[in-house]
Amino acid sequence: MPVGLFRVCLLVITAIVNHPLLFPKENGTVPENTEEIIQKMKEREESLRLERLRLEQEIADQEATQQALEKVAVVVEESKEEKVRWDMWTALSMVIFLLIELWRQDFQEGNWQDIGGEEDDMAVLGKAFKGVAFPDKAVLASFYEKRILGTTGDMARMREMVEGFADDLLEALRSVCNRDADMEVEDCMGVGSMYENWRVRKPFVCDLIVPFAPPEPYCFRCQTWCSGDSFPPDEQGYGTIKVCRADEDVTGCICDKTKLGEDMLCLLHSQVNTTKPSGEMEDLLCFKNTQYLDADQVMKWFQIAVTKAWNRISHKYEFDLSFSLLDSPGALKIKFKSGKSIAFNLTPVVQYENSDVYFISHFPRSSLEADIPSSTHWFLTFAVYERRFIQLVSKTLPASACHISCLQILSFLHGKQCSLTGPSGLTNYHLKTVLLHLLQARPSQDWAPEKLEARLQDMLKFLEKCLHEKKLYHFFIGNGKVPAELGFPIIFQKAEPLNLFRPFVLRRDIYRKTVDTFHEMLRNMSALINEYTVHIPLAHTNGIRKESL
């Protein structure tokens, strides 16, 4: 019974608790909350899925970026390795190129006179000669006889007259100078085209150089660009002249470089043997506050001395003497009462040691040459050796050799062309240098008179080659093949060759003008020669051509 009653009570209590009216709201919201929770769970799942996709995409992008960076790094590394290899090849190529260039220059410097066997090169050259009508032997012979010989016949008489007057003028100059203080003037020497017999252009001008020396107890100590000290390229061909006491040590005494005590005396130099103060050094024509000879001071002194000398002897002559050119201090002109005049240059020079190389105080300059570094830099002239070399070679050539004729014709053509189109960088000295090279390179028989046409063509082709390469070496400087009979100083033979066309590399405008003038001269050559040539019958010309064949 009690158990049954307990069961009934438990059933009633369970019914009451689970009756829907007892908790209506709580039991009624259970289905709604379940759906909402399910919906939120689905939304959360969807958001988590999207987040997962986004994260996967970001990871994929990062991996792609990392791979791209790794690829770029690999490419950069490979490019660096390639660049290093390329730089190594480039450096190696440059080294090889420099070695080849140095070898080529050494070969050229060692063989720059050996042009006699370069027949193939001469054939390859001459591009400017294509289409140019070159005068034949008969025309050249007629031109030379009429234009050259017809106008140069009185040069010997003019040289004799100028030399005699110059000797008299210098003797008077010595008499008006103070022997104890002024420079000592020696006898003059004739140089240049007038004394080498190839001057063709009027007016004829004699070039005379006058060596001078300082008064006792002084002497000149000369230093050139090839004496061991380094000179910049624009000072090659120049030198300096120091005025020293004859008993002064060449290297200089230590007493000039250190201060000795009042109770100490140099055993080599006494107080009366010390260097003169700067004022007296200027009296010795030195640059201010230096011991170096000043070219401008020398020319001023020389002009004053020449003027005094002329005033002393002018009564002996029936003509006037004056300085003719302001830019050429040594240019003098003799004026006769008849109106005729004779021009000549009288230029003071300093002898280099015991040779016939001279430092010249004033040198006629062309537009090609740069300005002189300073008035203490003196240009070196080898004119005396050039004249001797031509005389020496002429003794070995056939009778009536054509070497001087070639230079005269080429000088005339170039001068005539410059008068038409204006000056160029080429000078007569360049033309003479070409001849000197060919005289040394070619055998004597090649300069027979009947080979005038061939040698003239050789000179023009050689000049064209030099213009193309911008290289024309000085004949004496660096030339180890100078004949020993000349007694040429060995220091200049061992020096580096001096390129006379070096300014062409720096002055492109002058170089272009020079090349254009040269080509124009070639084109006008026949017309210029025919203008001064006597008419030659065609049959005679053909006969000469057949004989030459």
From TrEMBL:
Residues 38-72 form a coiled coil. Residues 1-20 form the signal peptide. Pfam families: Mab-21_C (PF20266). The keyword Membrane applies. It is a single-pass type I membrane protein. Keywords: Cell membrane, Coiled coil, Glycoprotein, Membrane, Nucleus, Signal, Transmembrane, Transmembrane helix. GO terms for cellular component: nuclear outer membrane; plasma membrane. It is found in: Cell membrane; Nucleus outer membrane. Residues 403-477 form the Mab-21-like HhH/H2TH-like domain. InterPro entries: ITPRIP-like, Mab-21_HhH/H2TH-like, MAB21L/cGLR. GO terms for molecular function: protein kinase inhibitor activity. PANTHER family: CELL FATE DETERMINING PROTEIN MAB21-RELATED, INOSITOL 1,4,5-TRISPHOSPHATE RECEPTOR-INTERACTING PROTEIN. Belongs to the ITPRIP family. Enhances Ca(2+)-mediated inhibition of inositol 1,4,5-triphosphate receptor (ITPR) Ca(2+) release. This is Inositol 1,4,5-trisphosphate receptor-interacting protein. It comes from Atrichornis clamosus.
